[in-house]
């Protein structure tokens, strides 16, 4: 019998205010919950949801005969389903509210388990003369281990008897009281302790003491690179807003591997070799949001958000217009700037640009040269101007049109910027 607990959530309407990030198994893990927005909107949120839970399966309820539960293959597959499935849809989560982080140290608590993801152990002495440790801790939503996320240079003592000092991203794995006659028996194991227990322990511990940290092997490559995400272009009843993970640290993930998920849990379970994933501060998280009447300029409010490329630093370049049919307030022509990119894929990007504005009094500030990149839930890459016009003529109800505002100075990488628009707003 599986030791894990699962819960289902029927997502029927409204935004799903959950941020997801991929773990080492490439499955979506809840890394943040927008509770403030939920209190003021009709957002949807599983009541049992907590940070660290894994989204593992779904069931589409749109047909008369309900389909069977299907398991997500990977993070990209999960995004695609969340983007394209119609309401209602049932989401199945694996709860990790009571899960214990997998052990990093062996039984002696002096050596690293043979797991292949810990680089070294670092021992730091917390002197009695220092009332404050000067370290801020959080936990990795994927591994659930306690990790250093900030170091206060004014409070943190840099002296460590010539040994390596802890750094941002190191895991706290053990505490060794220095007044003990037998350090091995008095050593306190932290790598399998819940985060709230770690915080309580650090507040109550007697000094001097030694803290043992595990430094993980770090994957320095960035996550969510442009080539990997480009395939996810379908729009849906929701849009995905991209943010960087709120926990700013740099370490690889250490949660149990795919094969160990079906095993019996326990503090001493074997840590299998992990798949290498990106440093946490370089991982991307995605929040599921419903369609909004507001401008796309208001989607990103986090000033610390790291854009996927330098081509999209000005979010005001994107705007939308609700078109209900009839005469268009602008004329369209074939955009020829994409033929100068030198990239075969980009050269087949967007073709419909504004040639002229018919109604000067229109509230949306159309400009000559602006490019039509989205029609409701359709990405218009590769769609000819004539095909776009044919689709516009069929519109009989309010439909969202998404535009890219081109700078007066033509940029040879314009299609790269347009591609990023969908990567950031509509993926």
TrEMBL record:
Residue ranges annotated as compositionally biased, kind Basic and acidic residues, are: 253-272, 299-316
Q: Which residues does the annotated region (Disordered) include?
A: 243-275, 293-316
Biased segments, Polar residues type: 243-252
Please state what the protein is called. PDZ domain-containing protein
């Amino acid at each position: 019998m599986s030791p894990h607990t699962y819960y289902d959530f029927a997502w029927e309407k409204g935004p799903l205010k959950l941020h997801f990030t991929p773990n080492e198994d490439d499955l979506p893990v809840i890394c943040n919950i927008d509770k403030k927005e939920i209190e003021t909107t009709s957002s949807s949120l599983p009541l049992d949801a907590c940070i660290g839970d894994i989204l593992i399966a779904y069931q589409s309820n749109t047909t008369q005969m309900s389909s069977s539960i299907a398991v997500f293959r990977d993070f990209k597959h999960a995004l695609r389903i969340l983007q394209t499935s119609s309401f209602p849809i049932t989401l199945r989560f694996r709860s990790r509210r009571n899960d214990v982080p997998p052990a990093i140290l062996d039984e002696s608590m002096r050596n690293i388990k043979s797991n292949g993801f810990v680089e070294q152990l670092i021992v730091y002495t917390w002197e009695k003369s220092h009332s404050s440790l000067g370290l801020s801790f959080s936990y990795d939503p994927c591994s659930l281990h306690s990790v250093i996320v900030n170091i206060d240079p004014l409070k943190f003592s840099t002296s460590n008897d010539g040994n390596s000092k802890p750094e941002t991203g190191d895991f706290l794995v053990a505490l060794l009281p220095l007044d003990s006659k037998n350090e091995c028996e008095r050593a306190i194991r932290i790598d399998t302790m819940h985060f709230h227990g770690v915080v309580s322990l650090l507040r109550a511990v007697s000094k001097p003491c030694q803290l043992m940290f595990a430094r993980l092997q770090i994957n320095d490559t960035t996550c969510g690179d442009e080539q990997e995400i480009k395939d996810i272009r379908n729009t849906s009843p929701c849009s995905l807003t991209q943010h960087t993970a709120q926990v700013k640290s740099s370490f690889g993930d250490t949660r149990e591997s795919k094969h160990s998920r079906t095993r019996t849990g326990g503090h001493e379970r074997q840590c299998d070799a992990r798949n290498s994933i990106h440093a946490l501060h370089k991982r991307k998280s995605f929040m599921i949001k419903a369609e909004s009447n507001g401008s796309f300029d208001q989607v990103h409010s986090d000033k610390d958000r790291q854009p996927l490329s330098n081509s999209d630093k000005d979010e005001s370049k994107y705007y939308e217009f609700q078109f209900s049919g009839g005469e268009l307030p602008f004329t369209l022509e074939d955009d020829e700037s994409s033929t100068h990119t030198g990239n075969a894929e980009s050269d087949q990007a967007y073709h419909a640009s504004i040639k002229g504005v018919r109604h000067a009094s229109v509230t949306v500030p159309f400009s000559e040269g602006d490019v039509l990149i989205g029609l409701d839930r359709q990405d218009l890459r590769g769609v000819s101007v004539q095909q776009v016009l044919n689709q516009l003529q069929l519109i009989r109800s309010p439909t969202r049109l998404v535009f890219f505002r081109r700078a007066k100075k033509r940029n040879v990488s314009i299609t790269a910027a347009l591609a990023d628009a969908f990567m950031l707003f509509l993926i």
